[in-house]
Amino acid sequence: MRRELSVPFETRGQRGLINVRVLANDDPWASGHQLIVPDLDAETFRGFPICTATLRYHGQGLNAVMGWIQVVARSFDSSSTVDALPYFAGAAPFSSYGHLPTFFDAPANPDHPDGVWTATTFLTVVPDVLRTREVVPVAAFTWGYRLVGGHPSTLDPERRDHTNWSGHRAVLERDYPEWTFS
Predict the structure, then answer these.
(1) Where are the domains of the chain?
(2) Residues 11 and 138: beta-carbon distance below 8 Å
(3) Are strands 180-181 and 134-148 parallel, antiparallel or unpaired?
(4) How far apart are CA 82 and CA 174, in angstroms?
(5) Are the C-beta atoms of residues 3 and 142 closer than 8 Å to each other?
């Protein structure tokens, strides 16, 4: 099943559009899961979501340098964390950062207990591109999956209010105290 969402945004005096697509993973080998799980049992990973968000934006050059920040909440252990890539973890809260970055995530946690895994994904800008550690949210959406009896079902992506970080400011400040989340 494929679920899509468009989220308009405006930043640096230009308009843009986020195109979000969430689909159930029907082929974990094709999606590359064996790269992170060498002894992949594809059946246990089948059905988990794949989320891709691409940008269309009228700004050019440095105006189009942006980042993605994701906060994950899990109902089965009541935890929330910033989901940064390992090479960013501790240094920056981004899952990706650059010129018109594409967001991609394919969580697959067949060993987790039943519950809901939700992510709030923010498109962000650093106002001066790279000189400070200040981040401003531009737009946001949620997505995820529900796990019941080891079987995942994807949750529809939904647009979220990005102002005040959709209630995730405390988690962001806890995990990245050297950054300012404006």
Answers:
(1) 2-181
(2) yes
(3) parallel
(4) 9
(5) no
